[in-house]
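Obj: model holo form, ligand = zinc ion.
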Amino acid sequence: MKTPKELKVKPIKNGTVIDHITANKALNVLKILKLPSKKSAVTIAMNVHSSQMGSKDIVKIEGRELKQREVDKIALIAPNATINIVRDYEIVEKGKVNLLDEINNILECPNPNCITNTNEPVKTKFYVIEKKPVTLRCYHCERIMNKEDIESDLY
Ligand code: CTP
Ligand code: ZN
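Output (holo structure tokens):
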């Protein structure tokens, strides 16, 4: 049993707890998830102490589980985030976001001349050429996307 001092934010009954979010990225995670919405109660903690990370953010969403595509977007901005699924106050599933070597069909290429920005039916594909800070290269036109390019595309 955690003491009140340790338990900074109230537990949720059903939904998702996104923990170990890179400090100060919680509001960007909400933008990716298109929250707040009328349906779900959301709790946010920012810059709370973490033994592993120094400081971190936490987002708790009542009554909603995440789609894989949303988890993959979160991995691009908060690579250490953990996704906890809660049912009836218990954690029933705990996973980590995973930044894969290829980002398929999630981001638009910033190069207006890229084939993915023409009327051709070609899906976007980027190689992750660096993880920290995350840097991508378009498979089709070799345009580099840095952290700022990625963030401006995501939100
Ligand atoms: N949590 C919650 N509501 C619940 C259960 C858990 O909001 N009903 C939150 C906790 O506050 C914590 C996160 O979910 O932020 C993960 O909970 P838990 O696995 O119990 O904590 P840790 O063991 O510290 O997590 P980790 O293994 O990810 O470090
Ligand atoms: Zn391109």
